[in-house]
């Protein structure tokens, strides 16, 4: 097996709508934030949206023209017996981190699947994606201050005060009752 690390061995075929494929062909534009595709099991990076070539919602696949070295391309070719791709020659893709089967590269296809030939075709169920810039951690706002040595001492002081108040509150209260006196007489 060999590492992916870029282009498939076979000459890359251009994806075009004229090829008769059912794939949705999307162009990455400046409005869409970049996406990183990760292994669904061990989370290593497999590729990104800069290599995006399209997707097929019916088959739950995405197509990339290049991938990271974390994608292992099998050396042996398989002939598919699946009804939609019967007779296609494919090469399996797997994760170098955990060996999860990720998808395939089509080496030989009928005309209707020519647009997939030479691309890295990932099963959507085997991958996850991360949109760059979507993290929830932001810089501290002005009303939140960093914990420094100076503020740490005052925090310790407050904790000690709270501990003393807690121990006082925990002390049982002893109540003594005395008879009431009415008009100088006790009852």
TrEMBL record:
The molecular function terms in GO held by this entry are: metal ion binding
Pfam families on file: Yippee-Mis18 (PF03226)
Compartments annotated for it: namely: Chromosome, Centromere; Nucleus
The answer to whether keyword Kinase applies is: no
* Domain (Mis18) ranges: 34-132
Its main localization is: nucleus
Annotated keywords:
Cell cycle, Cell division, Centromere, Chromosome, Isopeptide bond, Metal-binding, Mitosis, Nucleus, Phosphoprotein, Ubl conjugation, Zinc
Q: Tell me where the transmembrane regions lie.
A: none
GO biological process annotations for this chain's record?
cell division; CENP-A containing chromatin assembly; chromosome segregation
Name the InterPro entries on file: Mis18 (IPR034752), Yippee/Mis18/Cereblon (IPR004910)
* An example Gene Ontology CC term for this record: chromatin
Has the keyword Cell division been applied to this entry? yes
According to its UniProt entry, what is the function of this protein?
Required for recruitment of CENPA to centromeres and normal chromosome segregation during mitosis.
Q: How does it assemble?
A: Homodimer, and heterodimer with OIP5/MIS18B. Identified in a complex containing MIS18A, OIP5/MIS18B, MIS18BP1, RBBP7 and RBBP4.
Name the UniProt record assigns to this protein: Protein Mis18-alpha
Q: State the organism named in the record.
A: Latimeria chalumnae (Coelacanth)
């Amino acid at each position: 097996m060999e590492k992916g690390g870029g282009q498939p061995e076979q000459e890359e075929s251009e994806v075009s709508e004229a090829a008769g494929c059912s794939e949705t062909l999307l162009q990455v534009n400046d409005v869409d934030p970049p996406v990183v595709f990760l292994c669904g099991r061990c989370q290593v990076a497999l590729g990104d949206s800069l290599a995006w070539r399209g997707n097929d919602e019916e088959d739950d696949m995405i197509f990339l023209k290049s991938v990271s070295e974390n994608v292992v391309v099998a050396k042996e070719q398989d002939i598919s017996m699946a009804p939609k791709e019967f007779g296609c020659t494919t090469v399996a893709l797997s994760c170098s981190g955990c060996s999860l089967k990720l998808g395939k590269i089509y080496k030989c296809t009928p005309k209707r699947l020519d647009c997939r030939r030479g691309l890295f075709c990932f099963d959507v169920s085997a991958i996850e994606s991360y949109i760059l810039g979507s993290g929830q951690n932001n810089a501290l706002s002005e009303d939140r201050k960093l914990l420094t040595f100076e503020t740490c001492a005052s925090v310790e002081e407050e904790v000690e005060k709270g501990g003393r108040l807690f121990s006082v509150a925990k002390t049982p209260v002893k109540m003594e009752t005395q008879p009431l006196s009415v008009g100088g007489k006790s009852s």
